[in-house]
């Protein structure tokens, strides 16, 4: 197993670092995928024709994953703001797969409008992996064009973006489109086994939870002469809240989503202690380096949430639940108490990599005509994180309704790769606006 800490904010110039439980698709996993698809793929109309939007680390990984997920998958087009990323992404995938993926130069697009050119190609499956700020716009274009979508998380960086995606979810349902999100734990066998037992009452009513993503610092790219403000920000997207949503939204969303999943609900309010203590230099934009949030659910249950990106500190990427009849360390697939259980570790040998499985599930839904639309659940997870960020930035108690209805838009308008763009100020708890993100 590689270090999961690098998976959700990896450098766009290191496209294959973002791997979690990286075993590839071994013999047993390949058998598992074959059992999923069986004879469903007959070629022709069942062909999955993929377009990738965002050829950085996560996009490159997702494109490789979809090629591993099922037979009859072909890459048609790739797009990224930066042209050099296209060749790097293709070369990295071909080196791993040991064969060409067959995307000719005329179907490799660069620039801010590359997403439009990719969507205009003969594709039926689009992967959205650009920085999160662009997700609502890219989702809108893909859904309006009638494409099935695999979208990375989060699906927005602010409340207006979440509301836009919630509306798009209904439009996608009306068109019969299938959409999966990059909250891969919902497709991971061990998590599925554990959450099913929890939903069946193994630990009773959940009264408390904790969710952690505490890790060391991440990369940054030094500014080069000739780069505009926009280019510098895009190449360091995770350090600007308007591009990434801050660490609680971009990265910690995974752990909060697991707790929401177990609770079958979302929090009603949040109070945070958060700030920027170690990463104070200008190269780190305007994001924080730590959040500690107390989320309260309607049931009265509390989730203690922590995320941190600081070197030399105790690390943990985990989720745990406390129930009236027992407890669960969800990430370790363990239940203690009246219905004690631990998933047999030998099962992991045949588990499919969840980053492959999420694509396999989406393809199976497309070919089988089964409903699959994860936009609402990932929207709730995104808004949970935004609510925690709002509480951290403002120092106030923020409710779900306040977060959902917030009019605060983080993106500079209009965004271009030329001209001057001011770095947004760093929020100061107790001084930053009325609970606004």
List keywords for this structure.
single chain; alpha/beta; six-stranded parallel sheet; 14 helices; 15 strands; disordered N terminus
Write the layout of secondary structure elements.
Layout: H1 27-37, E1 48-53, H2 57-69, E2 73-80, H3 83-97, E3 108-110, H4 114-119, E4 125-128, H5 135-144, E5 148-151, H6 159-175, E6 179-181, H7 189-199, E7 206-215, H8 229-235, H9 241-244, H10 247-250, H11 253-263, E8 269-275, E9 290-296, E10 302-309, E11 316-323, E12 326-329, E13 334-337, E14 341-342, H12 354-368, H13 375-394, E15 398-399, H14 400-405
Parallel strand pairs: 1-2, 1-4, 2-3, 4-5, 5-6, 7-10
Antiparallel strand pairs: 7-11, 8-9, 8-15, 9-10, 11-12, 12-13, 13-14
Helix pairs in contact: 2-3, 2-12, 5-6, 6-13, 11-13
The radius of gyration is 21 Å
**Helix count, per DSSP?**
14
The best one-word shape is globular
Percent strand equals 15-25%
Helix and strand element order? HEHEHEHEHEHEHEHHHHEEEEEEEHHEH
Spatial arrangement of strands, main beta sheet: 14-13-12-11-7-10-9-8-15
- For this structure, the quaternary state is single chain
Binned, the helix content reads 25-40%
What characterizes the major β-sheet? 9 strands, mixed
Low-confidence stretches: 1-32, 34-44
The termini sit apart by: 36 Å
Q: Report the average pLDDT across residues.
A: 91
How many strand units? 15
Structural class: alpha/beta
């Amino acid at each position: 197993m590689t270090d999961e800490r690098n998976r959700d904010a990896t450098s766009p110039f290191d496209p294959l670092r973002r791997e979690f439980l990286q075993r590839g698709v071994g013999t047993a996993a390949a058998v598992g995928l074959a059992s999923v698809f069986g004879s469903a793929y007959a070629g022709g109309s069942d062909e999955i024709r993929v377009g990738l939007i965002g050829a950085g680390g996560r996009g490159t990984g997702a494109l490789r994953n979809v090629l591993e997920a099922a037979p009859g998958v072909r890459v048609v087009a790739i797009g990224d703001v930066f042209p050099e990323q296209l060749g790097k992404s293709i070369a990295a995938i071909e080196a791993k797969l040991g064969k060409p993926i067959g995307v000719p130069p005329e179907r490799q697009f660069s620039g801010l409008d590359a997403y439009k050119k990719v969507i205009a190609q003969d594709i039926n499956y689009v992967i959205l992996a650009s920085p999160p700020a662009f997700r609502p716009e890219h989702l809108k274009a893909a859904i309006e064009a009638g494409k099935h979508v695999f979208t990375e998380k989060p699906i927005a960086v602010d409340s207006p973006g979440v509301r836009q995606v919630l509306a798009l979810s209904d439009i996608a349902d009306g068109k019969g489109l299938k959409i999966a999100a990059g909250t891969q734990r919902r497709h991971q066998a061990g998590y599925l086994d554990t959450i099913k037992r929890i939903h069946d009452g193994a630990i009773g009513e959940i009264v408390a939870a904790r969710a952690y993503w505490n890790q060391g610092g991440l990369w940054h790219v030094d500014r080069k002469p000739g780069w505009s403000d926009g280019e510098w920000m895009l190449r360091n997207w995770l350090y600007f809240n308007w591009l990434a949503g801050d660490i609680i939204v971009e990265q910690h969303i995974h752990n909060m989503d697991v707790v929401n999943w177990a609770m079958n609900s979302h929090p009603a309010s949040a109070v945070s202690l958060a700030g920027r203590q170690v990463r104070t230099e200008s190269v780190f934009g305007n994001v924080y380096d730590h959040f500690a949030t107390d989320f309260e659910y309607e049931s009265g249950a509390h989730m203690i949430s922590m995320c941190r990106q600081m070197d030399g500190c105790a690390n943990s990427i985990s989720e745990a639940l406390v129930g009236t009849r027992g407890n669960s360390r969800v990430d370790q697939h363990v239940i203690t108490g009246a219905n004690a259980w631990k998933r047999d570790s030998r099962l992991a040998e045949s588990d499919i990599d969840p980053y492959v499985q999420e694509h396999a599930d989406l393809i199976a839904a497309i070919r089988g005509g089964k409903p699959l639309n994860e936009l609402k659940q990932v929207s709730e997870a995104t808004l949970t994180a935004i609510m925690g960020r709002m509480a951290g930035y403002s120092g106030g108690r923020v409710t779900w309704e306040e977060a959902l209805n917030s009019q605060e838009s983080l993106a500079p308008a209009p965004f271009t790769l030329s001209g001057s763009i001011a770095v947004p100020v760093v929020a100061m708890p107790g001084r930053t606006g009325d609970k606004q993100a």
